[in-house]
Amino acid sequence: MERVITSLSSSHGTAWGTFCAACALLCVALIPVSTVEIPPLVDYPNHLARMHILADGGQSFWLRQYYEIHWDLIPNLSMDVLVPPLTRVMPVEIAGKVFIGLTFALLAGGTMALHAALHRRRSPWPLLAFFFLYNSVFLWGFLNYLFGLGLALCASALWVRLRTGSTRLIVPLFVFIACLLLFAHLFAFATFALVLSTYELSQWWSLRNKEVGLARSIGWKAAPALIMPLLLLAMMPTFRAAPEDYPLWLRGSSPPPLISYLPLSSKIEAFKGTVRTEHRWLDRITVVMLVGLVGIGLVRRRALLLPEMALPLGATALVSAAMPNTIGTTAMVDIRMPIVFVLLAIASTDWREVSRGWSLAVAVALCVLFAVRIGSTTQDWRETDRQYQQFKQTLDRLPEGTRLLSAVKLAAYDNWSPAEGQIAEPMPMVNLACWGIIRRSAFVSNLFAAPGQQPVRLAPAVRPLLTVEEFLYRARPIPWEQLATQYDYLVVRRGQRFIPPLPPAFIPVGSGDAFQLYRTGRIQP
Questions:
Q1: For the segment 249-290, what is each residue's pLDDT rounded down to a tens digit?
Q2: What is the pTM of this model?
Q3: Looking at 378, 411, 431, which one is the last position of a domain?
Q4: Residue-wise DSSP of 57-108
Q5: How far apart (Å, rounded) are the C-alpha atoms in residues 310 and 447?
Q6: Within this chain, do residues 365 and 452 fall inside the same structural domain, yes or no?
Q7: CA-to-CA distance for 215 and 277, rounded, in angstroms?
Q8: pLDDT confidence of 414, banded at 50, 70, 90?
């Protein structure tokens, strides 16, 4: 009896210590986000501008002229549902950071919850998930996907815990959860469906000679959670939008192939992107330490992979290898699955008992490495934020409701390679003009407003306006004179090359270390 009490007390102490450590690591992980005003994530300004439009709800005269709100059944709504209500009590900039914090908490917490559900014990091992929060998917700003992935990990943990429960509870509960994941993000539901189906298949295989009836009945419980979201997806407008509903830069370009692939080297870059900073030496040290830790565990037979998770991990690896680069208008699809594999691998593995001295040494080394990574990211982000502040100060001098043409290109346009196509720029500027929507209620040419993908569309009056992207995509000369009749201002990256060059009639009116702003001379009606 005394041994049981001691074991329970030790288990409770480990669980409490792990929870406190997770909270501390989350606070440290959020230091770069909290110390800058604009996190340098490629798509983040574009998403936040949409949050501002949704929060405004058509109150602003200028926003009402340029944008329309169209709520629909869209499998990409995490941020759109959660952030606008937060703006009632805080600025949209802070609300965006809160969403990032929730995303981090879900990714790490979901990994820890799945680990606890699989192994039936609390362990410090899944804290390794914090090393993978700053990954390529995050740096590209795919926040809805990462938020949904965190939810998918939590849902998988809940399934493992409750799968043998009452059918009357399990079926409706997980149908609701699966539909919720679909609305959070299509890939979040796909991840949950992949883990759930392969886990149950693995369970059925292991019990095929003993408890086939039990395994089969639990598998049938999972079926509605996989089928109902697919029926909802068939009703969604995502794959049924008419070409005339798309912005002109999508309609005007030649239709891309439905599915396209990059060379095999891009798959390697995608996996390298699960742990990435601007400092390659730091990434190499991190990989060596983490791989070395796993290697030591395998050699000493301390590392343990649950047999029932071998199939889900193998399936995730195969999907990662087979994933195309683009599906329709969705780009960089192949960088999204490697982070699923890594977090799933952390949740599926564990360490047997090791000496306290060795554990302490490893924990200290990993904490120091994590602190160095966060410190270097914070320093890099603060320098980027300084240059972003120059841009915001320039925007604040523009008139309300101005039309702003963004001609900022990704560096990959001038020097493209498969590797560079997978790596987010250290100081992304391609969507920075979208801050004009938040600061000046401007019309910005490159806001994400594709029907079936976002609940914001361009108003009919501005839908025919040209954009620079459509000419870049088709490698055609940019008609600056025509654009000058449609836009009031133009922003470019310093040193950008265009064909033809900017006309002399464009007057410089503001600049920073990384950008130049021009007035086009457009006469307002």
A1: 554 444 455 677 888 888 888 899 999 888 889 999 999 999
A2: 0.92
A3: 378
A4: TT-SHHHHHHEEE-----S--HHHHHHHHHTTTS-HHHHHHHHHHHHHHHHH
A5: 42
A6: no
A7: 44
A8: very low
